[in-house]
Amino acid sequence: MNRTLYLMALPGILFFFVFCYLPMFGVIIAFKNYNFQGGILGSPWAGFDNFEFFFTSPDLFRVTYNTLFLNALFIVVGTAVAVGAAVLLNEIRSKYGARIFQTLIFFPYFISWIVVALFLGTFLAYEKGIINRLLVDVGLERFDFMNSPAVWPAVLVIVYLWKSTGYGVIIYLAAISGINPDYYEAARIDGASRLQQVLRILLPQLRPTILVLFILAVGRIFYGDFGMIYALVGDNGQLYSTTDVIDTYVFRSMRTLGDMGMTSAVGLYQSLMGMLMILITNWISKKLSDEKQGVLF
Amino acid sequence: MVEHKSFGFRLFNMFNYLFFCVAGAACLVPFLIVLGSSFETEQVLKDRGFSLIPQHFTLYAYRTVFELHTVVQSFVVSITITVLGTLSALLFTALLAYPLAQKEMKFRGWILGYVLLTMLFSGGLVPWYILISKYLQLKDTLWVLILPYLVNPFNMFVLKSFFETIPREITESARIDGASHLRTFLTIVAPLSTPGLATIALFYALGYWNDWWLSLNFIESDRLVPVQLLLKKMISNLTFISSQVDTSKFIQVPANGVQMATTIISIGPIVLVYPYIQKYFVKGLTIGSIKG
User: Fold this and answer.
1) B residues 195-224 closer than 8 Å to A (CB)
2) Which residues 13-32 of B are in CB contact (within 8 Å) with A?
3) Which residue ranges make up each domain of chain B?
C-alpha cells in the first residue's frame, strides 16, 4: 500500500517542482536578450553578453564585496555573541530569571524587518531621532545617519545582533544543556573552578554545534539578507556603497531597469557561487569530522 | 553542588544579571518607545520626536487608523492570508513529511535529496518572478500571497523529526488492522503529533503574517496590500498616509501618529500571544537545529 504514501507526498513534490525546479530551467534567460513578447523561448540569444556587461561593471565588485563582508560580519560576530550570551545565560542561577531574560531577548525575532526599520528610524532620524536628541542634549553635533554609508556596516551588525541573538541563544542553550554533567563533576572533583569548567569542558563540547552552524552559515555567504537590508536601507541610494548586496541589486535591476537577461545573469552568478560555497563547506565539514556525512549531505 | 561564594563569583553573578537586564531592556525599549509615541499628539511628535511616555496622551492616532479604509483592508488581507496560508501550508507540509518519516518508503532517499537540492541551488529571482507573474498569471490575486510558501524545507524537516518520534508499534498495529497510510496518519499519528503540528503551524503563521516579499513583487492593486507592505509604504513616504485620508473627515492628518499606531496594531497580536507560543518556537528550533 505504498501507493497511498506516494499520493500523500505528491502535493509537496509538485509544489517544489513548480516553485523551485521550474524556475531552474529559467536560467537560460541569462543567456538571452529577454523581451516580454517573446517570452523565454521566443527571445533572441545573447550568448555571454549579459555576463560580460555585469562582470565588467564596477557593480560586480561592490555588491559581491558587500554581500560577503556583511555576511562574514554577521556570522562571526553573531556566533560569538550568541555563544557568549548562551554561556552567560547558563550561569544565571535563578531558572525563573533565566526564563524571563530568554523571553525578552527572543522577542525581537518575532518582529518583521519592516517594523524594525520603523524602530530604527525613531533612533536614527536626523532631527528628532533618539540618538541625535541625546547628542544635542550633551552638546554634541547631530549625526546624519541616512547619508553616512561608512557607519552602516556597524549599524547593520548591531541591528542584526538585536534581532537574531535570541534565536542563536536558544539553539546553543539547548546544546549546552545536552552536555553530560559528569564531565563537570569530574572536573570539579579535580579542583577546577567554574571558569575553568566553562573553558575546558563546556566550550569544547559546544564546538561541534558551533562548527555545524558556522559552516551552514558560510555556505550561504553569497546570499544577502534581502528582507533586512531592503527594509532598513530601502531605496536610499546614498547608502548603497556599503549596504547594497547582490540580492538588493538584483531586485532593483529587475524592477527599475527591466533588463531580465542581465538580471538573470547576476542571479545565476549568485546561485552558482552559492552552490560552490555549499559544496566546499560541506566537504570541509566532512574532513573535520571524519564521518561519511557532511553538514548537509 | 557546593558553591564557593567567593567575592569574584558574586561579582560575576551581579554583572551577569546586570548584563541581561540591559540586554532585555534593549529588546523591549524600542517597542515601548513606539507604543508610547502612538499615544502622543501629532504636534509633540513633530516638535519633540519620539519618547517612552507621551506628553499629551491621546487616542487620536488610533481613531484615525481605524477610520482609514486602506488600513482596515490591509488587516483583513493579512488575517486572511495568515489563516488560509497556515492551514494550507500545514496540510501540504504534513502530507509530505509523514511519508518521508516512514523508513520503509521506497525512493525516500531520492525525495529527500530532491527537497535538499532546492536548498542548494536556485533558479534566481527573475525566472521565479516570470513564472509566477507571466506563466501562472498569479499577479494581484490572493493566492500569490499564499502559494509560494506552502512548503518550507526547514519546517518540513522539523515536522518529519516529530513524526519519526511516533513509535512504530502504533502505526504498525493500525496498518495490520487494515487502515491505509492516510487513515493511519489522520486518525492516529496527527492527533498524537499535536505539539509538532502546532509548532510548525506557528512557524508558518509568523511567516505569513510578517511577509512583505510576495506582495512587494506581485501586488499592485490597493485591495490586496497586506499590513507589512502598507507599513513599508507608510515608512518610506509620510505623505502616503496623508493621501489615504479623507480630508473631509480629518482636518489634520497625524501622519507620524498613524505610523506608530499601525505598527503597534500589527505587532499587537504577536505581543499578546508571545508568552504562550514562545515555548513552541523554542522546541521547534531545538529539534530543527539538532537534526540539522
Assistant:
1) 206, 209-213
2) 13, 16-17, 19-21, 23-28, 30-31
3) 79-224
* Cell numbers describing residue B28: 523591549
Residues of A in contact with B51 (CB under 8 A): 130
pLDDT of residue B3: 55
> CA B163 → CA B94, B99, B111, distances in Å?
9, 9, 17
Per-residue pLDDT tens over the stretch B164-207: 988 988 888 888 888 888 888 998 899 999 989 999 999 999 99
* A35 touches B at CB < 8 Å: no
Q: Considering chain A, what percentage of its residues have pLDDT values greater than 90?
A: 67
pLDDT at residue B263, as a whole number: 94
pTM across the whole model: 0.92
* Rounded average pLDDT per 10-residue block, chain A, 297 residues: 86 96 93 83 87 89 96 97 95 91 95 95 89 92 93 97 95 91 90 88 91 90 95 92 95 89 93 93 84 73
Cα distances (angstroms) measured from residue A247 to each of A63, A225, A228 = 9, 8, 11
Counting as low any pLDDT under 50, the low residues of chain B are 1, 292
**B contacts of A124 (beta carbons < 8 Å):** none
Tell me the CA distances in angstroms from A297 to A18, A291, A292, B96, B161, one per residue in order.
Answer: 24, 11, 9, 20, 17
Whether the CB of A208 is below 8 Å from some CB of chain B: the reply is: no
For B257-275, what is each residue's pLDDT tens digit? 989 999 999 998 899 889 8
A225 to chain B nearest CA, in Å? 12
All structural domains of chain A, each given as residue ranges with its CATH number in brackets, are: 68-289 (1.10.3720.10)
The residue in chain B having the minimum alpha-carbon distance to the alpha carbon of residue A219 is B120
CATH class of domain segment(s) B79-224: mainly alpha
